[in-house]
Amino acid sequence: MKFDGAITALLLATLVAGCDSLGGSKKPQPAADPNTFPQDYRKQIAGYLAQALKDLPDFRTAVISEPALKPVADTQRYVVCVRFELLKERIEKSAIFLSGAMQQFIDAKPEQCGGAIYKPFPELAEMAPK
Questions:
Q1: How many CB atoms lie within 10 A of CB 46?
Q2: Are 65 and 119 in contact (CB under 8 A)?
């Protein structure tokens, strides 16, 4: 009987040790920084517009700003401003990023794009029908 108790104790100890190695006591992963700089923001925005707009307008006049931390609701997020022509209408949009990934593409607000410095956005022009 002493032998059976020793085996039971050994099995229980093995199970408890196995739980620790299978994730029973994982260390919590650090939270992702919501304001990670969006390294490939131009590619993300061009890809989104290629999917979102069925009839691609002439994007030769498209311009884009660099990412900048701007107010979004009650916090700060990286915002990229985009401006282009669509059916003779000037469109200005804000791409809002969370942890380096585009989360929203919305109408631009003055506090986000009012003082934006724009540069050419040839990636959009490459999508335009020839």
A1: 21
A2: yes
Count of positions (residues) in the chain:
130
Task: With H, G, I as helix, E, B as strand and everything else as coil, classify residue 84.
Answer: strand
Q: Where are the domains of the chain?
A: 41-125
Rounded to a whole number of angstroms, the distance between the first and last alpha carbons of the chain is 87
pTM for the complete prediction? 0.73
The one-digit pLDDT tens for each residue of the chain (130 residues) are: 444 544 444 444 444 444 444 555 677 777 788 999 999 999 999 999 888 876 666 677 899 999 999 999 999 999 999 998 877 788 899 999 999 999 999 999 999 999 999 999 998 877 766 5
User: What token pair was written down for 93?
Assistant: 């949009």
